[in-house]
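Board notes (copied after class):
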Amino acid sequence: MQQTPLCRQRGQRNGGKSLPNSRSKRNHAEEHIARCAGLYAVISRLQMFDPPSPHPLDHDWRYDEATARRLADRLTGMQPVLCLGAPSVARLLEQRGVDVTLVDRQPLQGVARHLVQSVERFTADRRYRSALVDPPWYPRQLQEWSNAAARAVGNGGAILVSVWPWDTRPSARAELDDAMSIFGRWAVVRRSVDSLQYEPPQFELVAHRHAGEPDLSRSPLVGELLHLTVTGTPPPPFVLSPGVRWRRFTADCYQLAVREGGDTKLDIAFVPGADGWHWPYVSARAPDIGRIDVWSSEGEVAGCGAGDALAAILRRALASPDARAFDEAMAQAPSLLTWGIPRPPYKRWIEWQHQQ
């Protein structure tokens, strides 16, 4: 059996000698090598994991490396840790051996203890000591995600929450003031315990190049970190109403979302307000955003009269053995051949679904 680096180092410390020739000693050595191999497999998976590109439907802005490490430093001594969003921090914590659980609907996150579901539908599976909450920057999601974290950590538990700066939108300051007032009913609130920096996602870079209204085409890329110490009971979960269902496809790092439903007539068309196939906004307040039926992580958008039919075409194309077969499968949707969808073979591709 080939030794892992850790096992070779152990052998060198023992003078490079073989273990005594007894069955129990051999079994012990084999178990040790297996543990080393398993450990290095986990470390390799975590360090080399390449998450899919952020998709705008997920409100996916990711911390820069320095911010993720500072947050991991804050949480390392407060386990078990619950991460609602923030998979990059969860990966760092797991590398450090911290007991961490990630809740995130995106299935590919490189975290061992990952509950693949929306935070709005999360019910605490155990008692946590601390939580990190990185919600979409809108009042309802901020309340829902923070309430879920409070129910999970209970009285005395600590919650770190990312919130938007005052100049995010015209109503941003009033919305934050309202949130602080509500949090104060069940927690001790500390403001501005850290400044958060985010990396611009690819779809935002695309929006910059095709910008319509600048205020809706750029995100702040900075945030404020709150520290909440839970002292009471947060409100019960919101009653969720049925939402739009999206069929999601991930090929290598590229992500494509197709709105489910529609008839059988495939009619792929430009979306009003888009610059050709490119969406020049990053805000949920953008005009005509509800008319997007096909949306990629590269900021490409389209309308489509038959989402289910298009999903079936994409499913066949992604299962193709090579680029030529892919193009043949996509012949019914030739407009999408001009998009950035990668051709097979793939290192990975998956199909999944979520409700917005």
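Comment from the instructor: The two ends are 49 Å apart (CA to CA). Confidence is low (pLDDT under 50) at residues 1-47.
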